[in-house]
Amino acid sequence: xxxxxxxxxxxxxxxxxxxxxxxxxxxxxxxxxxxxxxxxxxxxxxxxxxxxxxxxxxxxxxxxxxxxxxxxxxxxxxxxxxxxxxxxxxxxxxxxxxxxxxxxxxxxxxxxxxxxxxxxxxxxxxxxxxxxxxxxxxxxxxxxxxxxxxxxxxxxxxxxxxxxxxxxxxxxxxxxxxxxxxxx
Length: 184
Description:
By secondary structure, this protein is an all-alpha fold. 78% of the residues lie in helices and 0% in strands. The chain contains 10 helices and no strands. Helix 9 runs antiparallel to helix 10 (164-182). It starts with 5 loop residues before the first helix and ends with a helix. The relative contact order is 0.11.
């Protein structure tokens, strides 16, 4: 049997860990359970990660930050409305498709704060705020629009949507309202 490349093993551990965390919560999970889920020894797990906290933070980073930065980069050449629509659709799709992990992240918010990771949420808000400024949302409209976006995105935690047409209609309605507000 061929040995797995280091980066592939790391990804395997993170994916297995996120499944364990979703099933058992952060506090209810052990590194031994994560290792078993990844089909490796606990010693091997610790060659890749120093702590369970590190595994958790590394597991949520792509979900929270990297995908958002990628969406903003991908949509950089679009018109303001198209950019907003693209990013909102991507965020809502991400939440609808990964709502168990997102709920876990929100449930573990006190832990994230303890670990000094509250800057994850601050970073997300800053990224979205910068995007709003780029498309022309300023002043008190910026805070209102940011709250509207975050509320819309988070509502899909409890009402996930798998029908892409319904999701597109929803996103289009929200973007239409925001653009009307910008053009007042």
